[in-house]
Amino acid sequence: MILLRTIKTSWTALLINKARSLLTILGIVIGVAAIILIMAIGQGAQDLILGEIGGLGADTVIVRPGKQPTGPSDSANMLFSDSLKERELDALRKKSNVPTLKSAEPAVLVPATVSYKGETYRPEILGWSADNMSNILDIHIEQGTSFGEREDRQKENVAVIGDKVRTELFDNEDPLGKNIRIKDKNFRVIGVFPPSGQALFVDVDELVLVPPSTALTYLLGSDHYNEIIVQAESSDVVDQTVLDIERTLRDMHDITDPKDDDFFVQTQKELLSMVGTILSVLTAFLASMVAISLVVGGIGVMNIMLVSVSERTREIGLRKAVGATNVDIRRQFLIEAIVLTGIGGVIGTLIGFALSALAAVILSQVLGVAWGISFPVGAALLGIGASAAVGLVFGSYPARKASEKSPIEALRYE
User: Fold this and answer.
1) How many domains does the chain contain in total?
2) Residues 41-79: pLDDT tens digits?
3) How far apart are CA 76 and CA 69, in angstroms?
4) Strand 185-192 versus strand 158-161 pairing type
5) CB distance 271 to 200 below 8 Å
6) CA distance 268 to 141
């Protein structure tokens, strides 16, 4: 009963100065809204990226050159490592080396522009089997035909293009059978993908797909792959497939200590775990940086509460004169601070969720991806809890100052 009466008294005091109360919680509202927005966007990004990785299938294994990256410099080294070549691909395809392997296809990235009759466009050019787009990513050719291992082995100059590439280069003209130029080489368009959006970090609509051997020989002048995408016979034998791949490549490269590996193998489970951890840490870091604004808001609360204590000195003296103890006074002002910041936390949470929903819609339109609207319950509890904690911490000093006032001196205060 005493606590309820104290809360009622505190609420009445706050309502007397509505404008001051609103200004006091403004910093808390902004801080909490920013935390909710950052965490909601982070969760949305994580769901989107993990969904893209999950599209690979549980039976997919990716072999990449170089040591497994632990930082940005390692990632750069991976792009220039030449430890995966045609002989490694041929070795992995042998059933005697990897009995549980279903298929192994190389992939290379080609930084270049594409032109047709004076029209130039910079798409994403990838040397990879178009058949794999159907088998692994379930994206099928809408017009024309596909290409696979035969075209790659013969190094044919053929290409399958995305819907946006077709529109940018050919407008309303039928692209099938036409020649596009990539690095002064003619490539015959044999197929067109339907509008598909993002798939495995690649915008299919802006994709030009060519045979990987053709890309290496005629476009890059190189002999090593950026990665080899392997399909196991089933998800149950993925672990055994990984062991066989590692054993085969170590034997070829005369590696006895796994620490000296000049390649690394990733499964879908490992990719999901790694990317999820990175995004979670990044989101938490950004949220903690934004949380500094709560400290600024807390200092504002403390200043306003000190002013309030000074203005209500006679009220404090009167309450003490009729029997209120130091604990009662301290409890009242502390509850006022917690109520203020708690209300700020609730308002900030609602605003943060509204902004995150708006951001999700804008990002979906701008990036052309299915960016989901995320409302992490943990972020809401964190925001409200943190704001109440700010009131408790920064309201303690004003509350103590109020409780220490002498009732006689307080009643004399003008």
Assistant:
1) 2
2) 877 777 776 666 555 566 788 898 888 766 555 555 555
3) 9
4) parallel
5) no
6) 25
